[in-house]
Amino acid sequence: MSYPVEKSSEQWREQLSPQEYAILREAGTERPFVGEYTDTTTAGVYRCRACDYELFRSQEKFESHCGWPSFFAPMAEGRVEYLEDNSLGRTRTEVRCANCGSHLGHVFAGEGYPTPTDQRYCINSICLTLEPTEAD
Question: Which domains does the chain show, CATH number per domain?
Answer without folding.
Answer: 9-132 (2.170.150.20)
